[in-house]
Design the sequence.
């Protein structure tokens, strides 16, 4: 059986943590994409405002298998 996968990029943020941002991005991707097989975190950044860390941001690839 041959499988073909696709990768799409998602950016997500959370005021709580990187882990929470990853979960938010994954949960949102699950609403649109089916057959997700993996996630790769490409980048982590923190938004700073008035000398305070206000948002944790992640850029990630969502890998999913294309259906017939």
Sequence:
């Amino acid at each position: 059986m041959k499988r073909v996968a696709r990768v799409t990029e998602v950016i997500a943020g959370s005021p709580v943590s990187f882990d929470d941002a990853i979960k938010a991005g994954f949960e949102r991707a699950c609403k649109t994409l089916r057959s997700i097989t993996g996630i790769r975190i490409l980048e982590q950044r923190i938004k700073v405002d008035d000398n305070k860390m206000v948002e944790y941001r992640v850029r990630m690839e969502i890998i999913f298998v294309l259906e017939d």
Remarks:
- The two ends are 12 Å apart (CA to CA).
- Residues 12 and 24 are 7 Å apart (CA to CA).
- Residues 5-65 form a domain with the Dodecin subunit-like fold (CATH 3.30.1660.10).
